[in-house]
Structure formats: C-alpha cells, structure tokens
Amino acid sequence: MESKHHNSINLNKYISSTGICSRREAEKFITSGAVTLNGKVAKLGNRVGPGDQVRLHGKPLQAKPKSLYIALNKPVGIVCTTDSKEKKNIVRFVNHPERLFPIGRLDKPSQGLIFLTNDGDIVNKILRAGNKHEKEYLVTVDKPVTDTFVQKMSKGIPVLGTLTNPCKVTQTGNCSFKIVLTQGLNRQIRRMCNYLDYEVLKLNRVRIMNISLDNLKVGEWRVLSKAEMAQLNQLTSHSSKTEEASRDKHKKRPTTKGSNSKQKRNRKF
Fold first, then answer.
1. Considering only CA atoms, which of 79, 12, 1 is closest in space to residue 39?
2. How far apart are CA 203 and CA 213, in angstroms?
3. Predicted TM-score (pTM) above 0.85
4. Which domains does the chain have, with CATH numbers?
5. Confidence of residue 64 (pLDDT cuts 50, 70, 90)
6. Confidence check: pLDDT of 125 > 50
C-alpha cells in the first residue's frame, strides 16, 4: 500500500533523488510499468515513505551518491542524450565513472557549454522557461549582420507558432553576433535566423547563468567549484522545482490558448 507517512515524497521525486535520472524521465519509467512500490506496479502520484521499497526493472534503487555537477564544452557532432543506441551520445563521450545525464540539450551541429549532473532535483529549476535564466551564444552567419537584423532578432521572431521573447543581441563582427536568451525553444536561434533568410554557420554557447566557458577547450570538462555552485543555487533558489509546482501555479492563474504547448517547448535549452 502507498505510504501515508508525513515524511513521504512523490515517487518521481524519490527516483530522481537516487541520481539515476531526472523527474521527467522517472515519470516515463513509472508510466511504462518499470517501477514497483512494495511489490506492486507503481503509478504516477504514488508516494514513498520510510520503509517503502522501490524497484526499477526489478532492481532496488540505491541511495543517492554525492551530488556532482560538471561543465562540458561540447564538440559539434555529440548528441545530448543518454540513449545507448546513439554511438555519439554525450554520456559515452564524457565517460565519467558516475552515472550522469545532461541538463537540457545543445543541438548536434552546435558546440559549447552544457551541464551534466547526477542530481535530478536541480534540472527543472535550471530549465524551466519561467525562471528566465540567461544563456549566452556566439553565432556566425552566412552574410553580413545589419542593424535591421539585430533589431528584429532583439524584438522577437515568429517561430513554432509563437513569438520569441525580447532578447539581447549585439553585433560582434561583419557576419557574427552575440545573443542572450532566457528561452529555450527547439533550435531557436537557427529558426530565428532562418526566418530572416540567414543561415547559421557556427553556434557556440559560452555561458549558462553564472557559469562561463572561460578557458575550457572544446571536448574538455571540469567539475563546478563550490563558489560557482553556491551562486548557482542562489540564482535558482526561487525557481519552480517540479512539474507539480508548475501545475499548481496554472490552476490558480488562467492561461491563454496554446500556453501549455509553448511551455513544453520552452523546457529545451
């Protein structure tokens, strides 16, 4: 029977707290029937308390290892997935002894900064679009950047059935610019440029919130320092932590048509 103990937590949160995956991935395991709670197939919404036994694919979940956060300068060609069928997946590339997964994604043709962690609790706090955390990119395009291009990119471009949020765009060269986003629509920068008849030749993410690439070479990774993590935790301290928190928020406030689909798209980096 599902635990009713006052110290119980949601099953998806419990699974992610073991460090095996994020909460969204935990929900997929639960709905697929791969998770059991005290010997019975678990369901979304189940809660776990002291003494409860949770198994994934028949194996008991172990205690969470020490939280680990790394910054990788992802090369072009590496795919931000944990799928073992993808030969160039990011986990295999990093080859870390701990089981890590990427926070968000960076397209295969793009390079630059991406975080990996074993802490599923921090993922939504960083990725949630409503938290408006900054991500900075250096972009090279196929023809000269104009003032009109900069203005239109800054004010918003219609892509994927929505208008992108206003953002900071600065020309850095004849055919290059810097852009700071607080959104994460799928292939957002490339789609924005394509709308204005520009093609992205190179896209490099150089900063996520307070963490920059600095001298990290392409293909290299490093563990985030205690000072960086302290600032990162401070920046995410008021962030919505879970899908449940997001749903509660939307129950209290009316939403406009299409807002749910837009929010789903915004979860990507």
1. 1
2. 14
3. no
4. 9-60 (3.10.290.10), 69-128+213-224 (3.30.70.580), 134-208 (3.30.70.1560)
5. low
6. yes
